[in-house]
Specification:
GO terms for molecular function: transaminase activity. By secondary structure, the chain is an alpha/beta fold. Strand 1 and strand 2 form a beta hairpin. Helix 2 runs antiparallel to helix 11. Pyridoxal-5'-phosphate (PLP) binds next to helix 4. The site of pyridoxal-5'-phosphate has 15 residues, from helix 4.
């Protein structure tokens, strides 16, 4: 009997006993290929010797010192590195313990920025349907999935939501991608004007939408248009790169491929690559300067912020990514995996779309490819697929999604950057077996 409140109260999951490379072994000796990097976390795979060595060295030196009294070399060096590697004046760093904490931090930093600017009436964030920004109340309030929010309503902040940039489902037949993008930007401008531009703090979005929609990249020019509107109406642009950041898209930050500079960037997952819980907010220098010139301090803080061992692990992760040229590997292996998936499932009657950036790849499942009709959500296909995959020693990250009242199941693949082509081929083959078993007309 387990005393842990597990995600599924009816079933205790297998006990992870060992992990190395892209494989996790459970207590009973069964092995699982980590094709999802957990939840797009494990970018270096498991038991990377450089990261383990950095953590051990840090534990030996100093495992913890509270930030009310001390800073530490590991945190300073990590922040300096993140600042040096980020474009423009995105050079202020706030280190926390995970993605939701980082999102809360970004929301409060943005709010305080406007307070210090003498604009306390700016209390509204605009966000998108079909988005996930974390499970704490503030992050939940800006997140898109109604089913996550509703049980906890009323939330702390009311957030107007606009359509996501989701070409597969959102673009009408005969509509060009440019026209679709222009319509989305018009919707954002309408939302800003409806809320009152001088009441809006900023716009929050995932650069590449992760788990809620299955690796949906933006259309060309979408974020340039968003940045233009934010500049025009004085909004902060807050990009959530908890899942798509830290190299997973093939560039360190996914927004680099969009040609925009956000005001705040929210990081987690791949920052520590699972070796330690760590998240961060990157902020443009003038934002933090305004707080320094104003009340002097950011009114925030967490017990484990800037944790030495977490910072040492994240610093080691970033060094390995650079030393081993893994950003290039992500681009090459991501293209290889997409090619394999297209070969395997390009004509599959129930795979409607294969998409993504780098090694963040989504497959959207449909009951019918022509109409794009989703499967009946009551079947909980994503959950069935996850179980089937685990039975075949494959970790994938399937989700049921909702958009504008329609439902769609998708599978997210986010293997470690170190996965070999042979491992990617094995992932594809096990996925094919999984889908064959799950979607076989004789059994499904
Ligand atoms: N933002 C995005 C885009 C995420 O994918 C997640 C987690 O899945 C979060 C925020 C929240 O991160 P955490 O689970 O570390 O709190």
């Amino acid at each position: 009997m387990s005393h842990i409140i597990h995600r599924n109260p009816r079933r205790v999951p297998p006990v992870a006993a060992h992990a190395t490379g892209i494989t996790i072994t459970d207590r009973d000796g069964r092995t699982y290929l980590d094709a999802s990097g957990g939840a797009a976390v494990s970018s270096l795979g498991h038991a990377h010797p450089d990261v383990l060595a950095a953590m051990h060295a840090q534990i030996d030196r100093n495992a913890y010192a509270h930030t009310a009294f001390f800073t530490c070399d590991a945190a300073e060096q990590l922040a300096a590195r993140l600042a040096a590697d980020a474009p423009g004046d995105l050079d202020q760093v706030y280190l926390v313990s995970g993605g939701s904490e980082a999102m809360e931090t970004a929301l409060k930093l943005a709010r305080q920025y406007w307070l210090e600017a003498g604009q306390p009436q700016r209390t509204t964030f605009i966000a998108r349907r079909q988005s996930y920004h974390g499970n704490t109340l503030g992050a939940l309030a800006v997140g898109g999935n109604a089913w996550r929010r509703q049980p906890f309503a009323p939330l702390l902040i009311e957030v107007p939501r606009i359509s996501p940039c989701y070409e597969y489902r959102g673009r009408a037949d005969g509509q060009s991608t440019d026209d679709y993008t222009a319509a989305l930007l018009q919707e954002l401008e309408d939302a800003i004007l409806a809320a009152g531009a001088d009441k809006v703090i900023g716009f929050v979005a995932e650069t590449v939408v992760g788990a809620t929609a299955g690796a949906v990249p933006p259309t060309p020019g979408y974020f340039r248009g968003v940045r233009r509107l934010c500049d025009q109406y004085g909004l902060l642009l807050i990009l959530d790169e908890v899942m798509c950041g830290m190299g997973r898209s093939g560039t360190l930050y996914a927004f680099e491929q969009e040609g925009v500079l956000p005001d705040l960037v929210v990081l987690g997952k791949g920052l520590g690559a699972g070796y330690q819980p760590i998240g961060a907010v990157l902020a443009r220098a003038p934002i933090v300067q305004r707080l320094r010139d104003g009340s002097g301090a950011f009114l925030h803080g967490h017990t484990y912020m800037g944790h030495p061992v977490a910072a040492a692990a994240a610093l080691a992760v970033q060094k390995v990514i650079q030393r081993d040229c893994l950003l290039g590997a992500v681009t090459v292996r991501g293209a290889a995996l997409r090619r394999m998936l297209r070969e395997a499932f390009g004509n599959h009657p129930h795979v409607g779309d294969i998409r993504g950036r780098g090694l963040l790849i989504g497959l959207e499942l449909v009951a019918d490819r022509d109409s794009k009709a989703p499967f009946d959500p009551a079947r909980r296909l994503h959950a069935v697929i996850k179980d089937e995959a685990m039975a075949r020693g494959l970790m994938i990250y399937p989700m049921g999604g909702t958009i504008d009242g329609r439902h769609g199941d998708h599978i997210l693949l986010a293997p470690p950057f170190i996965a070999t082509e042979a491992e990617l081929a094995e992932i594809t083959s096990r996925l094919a077996d999984t889908l064959h078993a799950t979607l076989n007309p004789a059994t499904f």
